[in-house]
Specification:
The chain is of the alpha/beta class and 363 residues long. Helices cover 44% and strands 16% of the residues. The protein has helices spanning 13-25, 65-75, 89-94, 97-119, 159-178, 200-210, 229-242, 259-276, 278-283, 312-318, 326-339, 341-347, 350-360, and strands spanning 4-8, 30-35, 55-59, 79-82, 129-135, 182-187, 189-191, 214-217, 223-228, 248-251, 256-258, 294-297.
Length: 363
């Protein structure tokens, strides 16, 4: 019998990249994407997948209990991969309520639907898996040394990370209380194709191309561990295939970078690509070095100083490791945004521009 997989948030950045991988890796599986199509969800992220006979799309939020329960009844899912989340820290500061509704109540709704389908009546957990995709931000902030491990205490510092921490605790509770077959992953910062333009890397790529200011919070020395999105997708697939139920796996790129250094690298790559291609130079004219566009702005409230993931557990137990060199991954990412200008121009809506101006001022 073919496997039935539910991918929530599958029209978003990481979810759509994972959906492409799973359909390629498991061509016999039936895949359903459930996505609310908020500002960060985009059907064009799924593109040609919409035509595949073993792919279905459902519009809706994971907090919609009647919809979620109906899908579990109709599709008899074996696997749930929960990417659906409000995930942008700045937006959580401007309006935290929706983060609680989606990240906490939405996860609760999914867990209840899975419990009802898999553990009640004649249901069985054999062959079932509920993969909950979370973030390293639940651990709070680090000093100059040290790494987040699976045993690091939770100390969330933003409404976003607090809502994700709560959802992680719910997932853990459903394993220990009900025996629901869950696994949680906590990943570091992702970058790559289809990332919504308000995030650091695509924002800087697009602004650098257009010759607009590059707003960097504070002194730009905040450090994050970065992972190319395809490496993250490979890690989730490894967890699906071999992960132990009830466990947590930290996923990182072993690649710490200061925010300002990332912006400088993007400037170098864009300068190089446009200087070597006359057509690109005409499309994105700029005199001088784009690093001159870097503008330091007031720091984000509660801005964590440093994140760094220790991926030893997933590397040792599941045989996964990140393989994409950061500079090469950044070059691929810049090239993708250059080659997909219609995608990001369509994504940058009036709603996004209103948000941008609230955060950074008019361009």
């Amino acid at each position: 019998m073919a496997e039935n997989i539910l991918i929530t948030g599958g029209a978003g950045f990481i979810g759509s990249n994972f959906t492409r991988r799973i359909l390629k890796n498991r061509p016999e599986a039936r895949v359903t994407v459930l996505d609310k199509l908020t500002y960060a969800g985009n059907l064009s992220n799924l593109g040609d997948l919409m035509k595949k006979p073993n792919f279905d799309f459902e519009k809706g939020g994971i907090e919609n209990a009647p919809l979620v329960e109906r899908l579990f009844t109709e599709r008899d899912f074996d696997t749930v991969v929960n990417f659906a989340a409000e995930s942008h820290v700045d937006r959580s500061i401007l309006g935290p309520k929706v983060f609680l509704e989606t990240n906490i109540m939405g996860t609760f709704t999914l867990l209840e639907a899975a419990r009802g389908a898999w553990l009640s009546g004649s249901g069985s957990i054999e062959g079932k898996r509920f993969i909950h995709v979370s973030t390293d931000e639940v651990y709070g902030t680090l000093g100059e040394t040290g790494y987040f491990t699976e045993d690091t205490p939770y100390r969330p510092n933003s409404p976003y990370s607090a809502s994700k921490a709560a959802s992680d605790h719910l997932v853990r509770a459903y394993y220990h209380t009900y025996g629901l077959p869950v696994i949680t992953t906590n990943c570091s910062n992702n970058y790559g194709p289809y990332q919504f333009p308000e995030k650091l890397i695509p924002l800087m790529i697009i602004n650098a191309l257009k010759g607009e200011k590059l707003p960097v919070y504070g002194d730009g020395a905040n450090i994050r561990d970065w992972i190319y999105v395809s490496d993250h997708s490979a890690a989730i697939l490894a967890v699906m295939n071999k992960g132990q139920l009830g466990e947590v796996y930290n996923i990182g790129g072993r690649n710490e970078q200061k925010n300002v250094d990332i912006v400088k690298l993007i400037c170098e790559i864009v300068d190089k690509m446009t200087s070597e291609d006359p057509e690109l130079a005409r499309e994105y004219p700029f005199s001088g070095r784009r690093s001159e566009l870097i503008t330091f702005v007031a720091d984000r409230a509660g801005h964590d100083r440093r994140y760094a993931i220790d991926s030893t557990k997933i590397e040792r137990e599941l045989g996964w490791q990140a393989t994409t060199d950061f500079t090469h991954g950044m070059e691929k990412t810049v090239r993708w945004y250059i080659n997909n200008r219609p995608w990001w121009e369509a994504v940058i809506s009036g709603e996004y521009m209103k948000y941008y101006e609230e955060q950074y001022g008019k361009r």
